[in-house]
From TrEMBL:
GO terms for biological process: methylation. Its EC number is 2.1.-.-. Transmembrane segments: none annotated. Residues 60-149 form the Methyltransferase domain. Keywords: Methyltransferase, Transferase. InterPro entries: Methyltransf_25 (IPR041698), SAM-dependent_MTases_sf (IPR029063). The keyword Nucleotide-binding does not apply. One of its GO terms (molecular function) is methyltransferase activity. It comes from Phytohabitans maris. This is Class I SAM-dependent methyltransferase. The keyword Transferase applies. It is an enzyme of class 2 (transferase).
C-alpha cells in the first residue's frame, strides 16, 4: 500500500492516536506517498468533466491537503486558485508544491469567504466530518460561491456487501468508533458516512441544486453502475 518513502507503521499509529489536525501535521511530509492521496485518475476525470461546465475564473479547494486538487483548478480557473485546510503541515507541503496558489488556514466548518468563487471542489475529505457537521460545511461552501457557482466532488460507488472492500470499510469504521469511544482527542475518519442520498439531502438543505452524473472515464462495475460519480451542487443564479 505504501511506497518506501511513505510513513512507517509506528508513524501511522502515532497519527491515529492524535487529533485530526495534529495527525495530518505529522503525516504531511509523507502524505503524497500514501494511498490516501486522491488517485491521478480521479483528478483527471474530474478535470475533464468540469471542462464542459464552465467557464470559471476563481476556484477553491476545500480541505486541500497537500494540494492535489490544484491540478483540477489550475486549467479551469485562470484568475485565482485557493486552497483551504486547517493543518499547517499539509498547507506547508501544498505551498511548496504550488507557490502560484493562495493558501488559507481555516476550519472549513466556518469558511472565511463570501461570494468570492465560481467553482469549489473537494477530494476525499468528507469522511472527516460527522453527519451532524456537514450542514455547516455545505453552508460555508454555499456562502463562498458567487450566484451560479458550482461545488463539485467525486464520489465512489459503495462496494457490494459481498466484497472484501465492503467488509474492510465496515471493520475500519468500527475500529475508529471504538478508538474514539476510549481515546481523546477523537480522530474522525469514516468510510461509510457519506452515502449519496444523505449528501443530496444536506446539499439541498444548504440551498444547492444537485445532480450526480457518472464519470465514464473511471468505468463501470459488473452490474453496469458507474464506479464513480461527480456530485455537482449548483448555487442558484438568483439565491432569492
Amino acid at each position: 500500500m505504501f511506497s518506501p518513502h511513505g510513513p512507517s507503521l509506528r508513524e501511522l499509529a502515532v497519527q491515529a492516536l492524535s487529533s485530526v489536525e495534529r495527525g495530518y501535521d505529522l503525516l504531511a511530509p509523507k502524505f503524497d506517498h500514501t494511498p490516501f492521496r486522491t488517485p491521478r485518475s480521479v483528478l483527471t476525470a474530474t478535470t475533464e468533466a468540469l471542462a464542459e461546465l464552465g467557464p470559471f475564473s476563481k476556484g477553491l479547494d476545500v480541505c486541500c491537503g497537500t494540494g492535489a486538487g490544484m491540478s483540477v483548478l489550475r486549467p479551469r480557473c485562470p484568475e485565482l486558485i485557493t486552497g483551504v485546510d486547517f493543518s499547517a503541515g499539509m498547507l506547508a507541503q501544498a505551498r511548496a508544491a504550488h507557490p502560484d496558489a493562495t493558501w488559507v488556514r481555516a476550519d472549513v466548518r466556518a469558511l472565511p469567504f463570501a461570494g468570492h468563487f465560481d467553482l469549489a471542489v473537494t477530494f476525499g475529505a468528507l469522511g472527516h466530518f460527522l453527519p451532524a457537521e456537514r450542514p455547516a460545511l455545505f453552508a460555508g461552501v454555499y456562502r463562498a460561491l458567487r450566484p451560479g457557482g458550482l461545488f463539485a466532488f467525486p464520489l465512489g460507488a459503495p462496494p457490494p456487501p459481498t466484497s472484501v472492500p465492503y467488509w474492510a470499510a465496515v471493520g475500519f469504521d468500527l475500529a475508529m468508533r471504538v478508538r474514539n469511544a476510549v481515546w481523546r482527542p477523537p480522530f474522525v475518519m469514516y468510510y461509510r458516512t457519506t452515502p449519496l442520498a444523505a449528501l443530496r439531502d444536506d446539499l439541498a438543505a444548504a440551498g444547492f441544486t444537485t445532480t450526480a452524473p457518472a464519470l465514464p472515464a473511471l468505468g463501470r462495475r459488473r452490474d453496469g453502475s458507474p464506479r464513480c460519480r461527480l456530485v455537482l451542487a449548483r448555487k442558484p443564479a438568483d439565491p432569492r
